[in-house]
Amino acid sequence: MSRSHRFYSHHAQGFVRVGAATPAASVGDVTANADSSIALARHADCQAIDLLVFPELSVTSYAIDDLHLQDAQLAATDAALARIAAATAELRPVLLVGAALRRNGRVYNCAVVIARGRILGVVPKSFLPNYREYYEKRWFAAGAGLVGLTIDVAGTAAPFGTDLIFAAADLPDFIFHAEICEDFWAPAPPSTAGALAGALILTNLSASNIVIGKGRERAMLAASQSARAVAAYVYSATGPGESTTDLAWDGQGMIHELGEQLATSQRFDLATEIVVADIDVARLRLERMRMGTFNDAAAAAGHPETRFRRILFEHRPDFADVGLQRAVRRFPFVPNDPGRRDDDCFEAFNIQVEGLRKRLVASETKRLVIGISGGLDSTHAAIVAAKAFDRLGRPRSDILGFTMPGFATGEDSKANAWALMKALGIAGDEIDIRPAARQMLGDLGHPFADGEPHYDVTFENVQAGLRTDYLFRIANQREGLVLGTGDLSELALGWCTYGVGDQMSHYAVNAGVPKTLIQHLIRWAIKTAQYDGETDRVLDAILATDFSPELIPAGADGAIQSTEAAIGPYALNDFFAHYLIRHGLAPSKIAFLAWHAWRDIDAGQWPTGFPDADKVAYDLPTIRHWLEKFVHRFFATSQFKRSALPNGPKVTPGGALSPRGDWRAPSDGTARVWLDEIAANLP
Fold first, then answer.
1. I need a labelling partner for 241 at 20 to 30 A (CA). Which of 225, 248, 565, 568 fits?
2. 159: helix, coil or strand?
3. Residues 6+ apart with CB under 8 A from 614
4. Does the annotation list 535 as a binding residue?
5. What are the start-end ranges of the E strands in 156-303?
6. Among the options 110, 125, 287, 387, which is catalytic?
7. In this structure, are residues 239 and 250 in contact, taking their beta carbons and an 8 Å threshold?
8. How far apart are CA 638 and CA 633, in angstroms?
9. How far apart are the first and last CA of the chain?
10. Which residues does the UniProt record annotate as the domain CN hydrolase (predicted)?
11. 648 marked as part of a ligand binding site
12. Residue pLDDT, tens place only, 261-273
């Protein structure tokens, strides 16, 4: 398959590659600093970096004190900027370099933006620290309030002020803002206004010295600003080589997006370094579009876009395949890091338990009725129910569990269902639905009633519907509440029987939990000893079973009905669902991300403890095949089931499908737009 197709380009998929540079600093050697800047720019060009951020005062060095006011030093700085611009005229990266510049009888601590040999603009530092170890007001004038101005620098007149954002005219969403060091320690960082004016990438040229704990503080501020401003934040602090007369430097470079750290430098490293990551600027734009509060904040601030100057430049992207400098999780609902995964499982489990506990109290129901199949979903619903009853101080025997074997129920799953009910101490019973199903199929004139092996949707749904019908009638009879077991993945795919079927219940406790997370929730319950040893043994056995609805008898070869053979791997379907429901990405971009996440078993991270036997890879044709199936099911055939969804708690930030919550859509919609987009944009 040709990799020249536009599909493989990160630019075509809405990414911008950014770098935080840590050059070898000096003590005021402008020539050496300019040489280092040029060398790093060339290196960045080889890495296809679009935007390269240098530290504060990178041209002059930061810790040179009164030398900032020496005319020879200032003149050398101006000449160095001209040399950097000329030397990088044919290079790809836009450069943000730090320099002290003269204007109108003052000296300003500035960020100088250079693209293709042209100085696009100069942003002065707004807030000058003059406390503890800082004395910047001794040398520099503050830039706060300076707007609409120009500055003569390196032989050209360039826009000057704190009212500048920069945008590529030929690469959508490549829009950035610059602030300098102390600016993002201020209560109201200038980058907030820059973001509200439209910048998606916020940058900080910093010379922050290091003391114990300051690295954590910087990371916290960068993460917080990227989350609050719905943006990316690129931070570059000066490293070794600066004067250590009274201070020391660690060279911390960081790249954050929406509160998540994408990349960070090796601090205290003597080597020059560029920390690189691909920013999903299209995702940031989409997030702002769906987050009304962001626009309200811009309105409350008097619409900063009306006060900012947008400086356009030609970036000249070639849309080549240069890979993807970004980790893409195979399981977006499941963190790779075991500590974070345990935290997420703790929260998810307790959200479900608390949701059910409140519903039991509010409904004043005496009992809970649940169908136990021996599969993952009903198992997880059962352990959530047991914990909810424990917290209420009520006996688990008031949970009425029913296994309801049909024409294809396996002995192993039935045995697991009984073992689970006994281990949990809930009331267990069995209802054989086959006589009732035969009667109904006969009444319908179905060929199966005459002995034919005719296994169509009606054959399956008669069984699924009878099970739910029994549960509701039992709930009527015994003053109970029917607990739904279906999960978020099944709702996304419409893999449930509508109405009198597993789509319906009194409370859908799993409706906000995707299939790929449920497995980890059960593993977490075992790991954290939520139940006793016998329960854990049963849970382990259930985790080892394949996904199957067990509605169609096994074939002559003994193979049981496979859910994933019919609807696709849940790992892929959950991947598709996350990026479509939560982020609204185009399906071709979802395919691009899935290809990078799943094409190579040995690439990237797997969740810690993930079984080696379950590790698989998917090529692009496979991803495309199941993505087309997914969007068809999601948009064209399944919404009516979600529109009539019972109550159930939202669990993951990746979204939920309740018509009263995250997802509202017409039940008679079409998948054509999404299928056409796949056809137009995939190889």
1. 225
2. strand
3. none
4. no
5. 156-160, 164-168, 175-180, 201-206, 232-237, 253-257, 260-264, 273-280
6. 125
7. yes
8. 6
9. 8
10. 16-281
11. no
12. 999 998 888 777 8
The response to whether 496 counts as a known ligand-binding position is yes
Q: Which one-letter amino acid corresponds to residue 222?
A: A
Query: CA–CA separation, 501 vs 467, rounded Å?
Result: 7
What is the rounded CA–CA span in Å between residue 17 and residue 48?
7
pLDDT score, position 105: 95
Residue 1: the pLDDT is 45
pLDDT at 2 over 70: no
For the CA atoms of 523, 525, 526, 532, the dihedral, rounded to the nearest 10 degrees, stands at: -160
Going from the C-alpha of 197 to that of each of 243, 305, 568, the distances in angstroms are: 37, 4, 43
Q: What is the pLDDT of residues 574-589, one digit of tens each?
A: 999 999 999 999 999 9
435 to 300, 412, 449: CA distances (angstroms): 67, 21, 11
What residues contact 630, with CB distance under 8 A and at least 6 apart?
Answer: 492, 493, 568, 572, 573, 576, 577
Neighbour tally for 621: CB within 10 Å? 11
User: How far is CA 401 from its chain centroid?
Assistant: 37
Query: Mean of the per-residue pLDDT values for the chain?
Result: 94
Q: Are 120 and 158 in contact (CB under 8 A)?
A: yes
Instruction: Return the axis-axis angle of helices 515-527 and 338-363, rounded to nearest 10°.
Output: 100
Distance CA 277, CA 254 (A): 10
Distance CA 317, CA 22 (A): 25
Residue with tokens 């009425």: 400
pTM of the model: 0.93
Asked if pLDDT for residue 670 goes beyond 70, the answer is yes
User: Can 181 be counted among the known catalytic residues?
Assistant: yes
461 is an annotated ligand-binding site residue: yes
Tokens 């205290």 correspond to 268
Active-site entry in 110, 136, 179, 181:
181
374 is in an annotated binding site: yes
Annotated binding-site residue? 669: no
